[in-house]
Each structure stands twice: as structure tokens, then as C-alpha cells.
């Protein structure tokens, strides 16, 4: 049997239901209000430049996707509608609790204002139309140039009942790095929040024992923040001394 040529392959029908978003529907593209929070220079992956060395005038903006307009596609709309109704039952307007809804790279993310995080998470867990029983932990992110919300916490949630996945994202400023703990809603977040505190410095208010889990108790700073110094010690190799990373020659 011979395989089809490139011309034949390009004319074959495409099964869009097998190659697109949730439940075979195309999610909407992010709106054009993507936020530029910084610029990276001297790195690979930049388009529009003949310099491929990585050390030249490569410039790439750092952007965060903007809010996505409806419809979102697949079960995303059902989840958003059910969450809107569930939040309203607590006497809170959806727009007061949710900053924006983003569909990006096939994932649905609710950006939650931090003071409303426990209530939103509880509704997502308990509402029969939602039933996101499992929180897969919390991931810290540090955007030093995202002024006023430099620290982000991201929570992947899964509904075992409905076989669905979403994400919650919360931000806090460096000057006030406090986010309510979800230990009371998802107890398995215990050590995840400790790890995020250890590495990023996010303080999870209400956590029963927010202590370091990887670094020594007397360690200074939070090693996975972008502004954390690389440090290190010199290394001797074949009679030469290699300086620590933060003392080596820079190319940018």
C-alpha cells in the first residue's frame, strides 16, 4: 500500500471534531486586548530577525492573553453559566468575583479576585452542575514586570463526575503577597501551598502550618522568583576556576 502524496494529503477532508477543542467544538480565540507585561531580549524563538545566535538584538514582548468573548466552545459555556448561577446564590455578582474568563490553548481559566477565591472554589466543588471535586495543587508564577500583581497562583481543577478540567488563577502584589488558603475546601492543597510559599513567597492566609517544605527554615528569600540571585560557588576544573552563574559574562 502506498501512502498519499503531499498534494493528495492536503485535499483530504479534515475531521475537525477530532482535532479541535472540548467536545469537538472550536473555542473562541482570545480577544485582541492581550496585555504586554514585559520584553525579553537575547533569547531563542524570536521571529523576524536573521540573528539565530541568541545573543543579538532579539526582542520579544511578554504578553498575557486578554479576556475571551462568548461563546467559549464545548462544555466551557456550560461551566461558566453554572458558575455564574452558583456565585449569584451567595449574593455576589459574577463580575465582582471573576476578573476575566480566558480560553487559551484549549484551556478555560477563571481569573478570580483573591478575596472571593474560597467561595468560588467551594461553589465549584459543591454545585451539582459543576462538581470539581479534585484540586491538583497550586502553581506559583512570578511576573516581576506585571506591576501590582507580580505574584500569581494557578489552581488546576478536575471534575471526576463530569470529566471536565478548568483552571483558577489569582494574583497578588509583591507588596501584599497574601492569598486565602484553599486548605478548608481542598485539604490536599496542604503541602502544595507550603511549597508555593517556600519557592515564591505567596502567603496563604488560613493555612494551618505555613512553613517551608523544601528549603531550610532559616533560608533567606524564595528561590523560584525571577528576581532571585543565582548565587552559587566557584568550581575548579582542570586547574581553572569557573565563577558562579551570577558572576559570569552576560550576553544581553
UniProtKB/TrEMBL annotation:
Its EC number is 7.1.1.-. Keywords: Cell membrane, Membrane, NAD, Oxidoreductase, Quinone, Translocase, Transport. It is found in: Cell membrane. The keyword Cell membrane applies. NCBIfam families: NuoC_fam, PRK07785.1. NDH-1 is composed of 14 different subunits. Subunits NuoB, C, D, E, F, and G constitute the peripheral sector of the complex. This is NADH-quinone oxidoreductase subunit C. It comes from Rhodococcus indonesiensis. The lineage of its organism: Bacteria, Bacillati, Actinomycetota, Actinomycetes, Mycobacteriales.
Amino acid at each position: 500500500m502506498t501512502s498519499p502524496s503531499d498534494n493528495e494529503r492536503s485535499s483530504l477532508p479534515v475531521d475537525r471534531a477530532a482535532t479541535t477543542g472540548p467536545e469537538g467544538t472550536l473555542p473562541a480565540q482570545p480577544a485582541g486586548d492581550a496585555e504586554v507585561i514585559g520584553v525579553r531580549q537575547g533569547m531563542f524563538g524570536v521571529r523576524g530577525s536573521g540573528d539565530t545566535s541568541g545573543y543579538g538584538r532579539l526582542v520579544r514582548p511578554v504578553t498575557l492573553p486578554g479576556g475571551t468573548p462568548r461563546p467559549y466552545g464545548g462544555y466551557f459555556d456550560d461551566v461558566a453559566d453554572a458558575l455564574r448561577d452558583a456565585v449569584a446564590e451567595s449574593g455576589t455578582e459574577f463580575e465582582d468575583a471573576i476578573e476575566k474568563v480566558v480560553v487559551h490553548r484549549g484551556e478555560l481559566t477563571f481569573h478570580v479576585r483573591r478575596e472571593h477565591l474560597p467561595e468560588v472554589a467551594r461553589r465549584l466543588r459543591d454545585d451539582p452542575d459543576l462538581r470539581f471535586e479534585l484540586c491538583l495543587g497550586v502553581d506559583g508564577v512570578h511576573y516581576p514586570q506585571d506591576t501590582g500583581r507580580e505574584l500569581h497562583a494557578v489552581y488546576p481543577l478536575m471534575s471526576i463526575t463530569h470529566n471536565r478540567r478548568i483552571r483558577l488563577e489569582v494574583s497578588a502584589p509583591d507588596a501584599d503577597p497574601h492569598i486565602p488558603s484553599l486548605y478548608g475546601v481542598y485539604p490536599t492543597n496542604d503541602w502544595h501551598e507550603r511549597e508555593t510559599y517556600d519557592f515564591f513567597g505567596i502567603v496563604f492566609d488560613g493555612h494551618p502550618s505555613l512553613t517551608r517544605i523544601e528549603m531550610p527554615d532559616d533560608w533567606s528569600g524564595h528561590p523560584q522568583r525571577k528576581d532571585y540571585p543565582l548565587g552559587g560557588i566557584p568550581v575548579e576544573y582542570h586547574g581553572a576556576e569557573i565563577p558562579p552563574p551570577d558572576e559570569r559574562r552576560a550576553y544581553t
